[in-house]
Write a structure and sequence with these properties.
By secondary structure, the chain is an all-alpha fold. It is built from 6 helices and no strands. The radius of gyration is 16 Å and the shape is elongated.
């Protein structure tokens, strides 16, 4: 189960409750609980609303994938 969802439910909150406390949209909460990526600022707001320290973020959010670099040939021809 998604850790954000589990923490929210442990507090007895709905997605709307968490969204209100984190000052973000309920749609964003839904997307995060579905495992979609979000901005660092959004992560900070959600964790703060849940009372989770920022240092525990890796336990609640998946690691971001590294950015892909274009092959050297593609960069030269551009």
């Amino acid at each position: 189960m998604n850790r954000i969802r589990a923490a929210r439910q442990a507090l007895g909150w709905t997605q709307d409750d968490l969204a209100e406390k984190a000052e973000i949209s309920p749609r964003t909460i839904h997307a995060v609980e579905q495992g979609r990526p979000c901005r660092q600022a959004t992560k900070r707001r959600i964790l703060a609303a849940l009372g989770v320290p920022w240092e525990a973020r890796d336990d609640y959010f998946p690691k971001a994938l590294p950015a892909r670099r274009a092959p050297a040939e593609a960069v030269k021809s551009a």
